[in-house]
């Protein structure tokens, strides 16, 4: 019998569908804005896009749009409602469904089929990390893991820590990196190159540049209006950046979703972040390297 992770893997690797999990460091880095604006931009390219909202805070896309039906996911998985009737069609062109944690963990892979085996060309998951920095079983089966960060020392350090936890939790070997709130494209390039070098040296994972989004006050203004920059302010630099990233996403090489077995350890077990005797020395080296490149990246800001 297939376990849950294997079942989800098979569901998510069906032909013609791409699943992207969007994650990042601290609150305010812009993961939800990235999911919403990429969803809108991909819809403009004629793609059928489904955004799965795992977030539960006031800044979630579901709350931004007036509150998605929190019981829709359970109804779809139990067969009481068809997916087409349960998702909300947003003004931005993509469909949306809320995925509260309690509903995600209480259903098996077979019940997820109605949600994940739907007609969407692209599924974007606004991923909610658990207290140990790990993905939900659903998000862990994505084809691509998009890490959102910005050109600032604290954000870069958080991005590295996020990737390290995800790497150890799910054996992820590649991350795509989107740099948000960029004032100077040269800084974004330096930050990515150095972050990629540190990740390769200390984690043996590869990073792929997904692009950058320009600093633009109208992104926040659009959110205040319960809209997104791509739709509300299409001529802005940020909107153009999102459309460019969406166009590139359509040509990302299709990779099989990883087989990730759900950890069987205690719920409050912490994911190691370099606490062994050798890990202590490596942590110091990593911290110094991250500090050096973060400072050099932000020097021109």
Explain this structure:
The protein has 301 residues and is an alpha/beta fold. It has a single domain, classed as 3-Layer(aba) Sandwich (Rossmann fold). It has 13 helices and eight strands. The longest helix is centred in the last third of the chain and has 22 residues. The protein is globular.
Order of helices and strands: HEHEHHHEEHHEEHEHEHHHH
Structurally, the number of domains stands at 1
Q: What gyration radius follows from the Cα positions, in whole Å?
A: 19 Å
CATH topology title: Rossmann fold
- Can you count the beta strands? 8
Distance between the first and last residues' Cα: 55 Å
Instruction: Assign the CATH class.
Output: Alpha Beta
| Major sheet | 8 strands, mixed
């Amino acid at each position: 019998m297939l376990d849950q992770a294997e079942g989800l893997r098979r569901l998510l690797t069906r032909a013609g569908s791409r699943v992207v999990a969007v994650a990042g460091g601290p609150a305010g880095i812009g993961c939800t804005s990235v999911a919403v604006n990429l969803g809108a931009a991909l819809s403009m390219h004629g793609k059928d896009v489904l955004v799965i909202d795992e977030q539960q805070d006031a800044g979630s896309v579901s709350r931004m749009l007036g509150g998605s039906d929190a019981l829709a996911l359970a109804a779809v998985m139990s067969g009481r409602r068809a997916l087409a009737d349960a998702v909300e069609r947003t003004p931005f062109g993509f469909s949306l469904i809320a995925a509260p944690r309690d509903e995600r963990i209480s259903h098996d892979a077979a019940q997820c089929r109605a949600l994940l085996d739907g007609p969407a060309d692209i599924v974007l998951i606004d991923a909610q990390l658990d207290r140990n920095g790990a993905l939900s079983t659903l998000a862990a089966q994505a084809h691509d893991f998009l890490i959102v960060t910005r050109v600032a020392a604290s954000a870069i350090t958080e991005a590295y820590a996020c990737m390290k936890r995800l790497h150890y939790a799910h054996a992820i070997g590649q991350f795509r990196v989107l740099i948000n709130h960029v004032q100077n494209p040269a800084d974004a390039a330096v930050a990515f190159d150095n972050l990629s070098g540190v990740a390769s040296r200390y984690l043996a994972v590869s990073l792929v540049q997904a692009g950058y989004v320009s600093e633009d006050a109208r992104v926040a203004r659009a959110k205040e209006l319960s809209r997104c920059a791509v739709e509300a302010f299409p001529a802005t630099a940020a909107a153009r950046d999102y459309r460019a990233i969406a166009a590139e996403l359509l040509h990302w090489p299709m990779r099989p979703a990883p087989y990730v077995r759900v950890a069987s350890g205690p719920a409050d077990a912490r994911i190691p972040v370099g606490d062994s005797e050798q890990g202590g020395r490596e942590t110091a080296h990593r911290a110094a390297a991250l500090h050096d490149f973060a400072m050099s990246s932000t020097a021109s800001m």
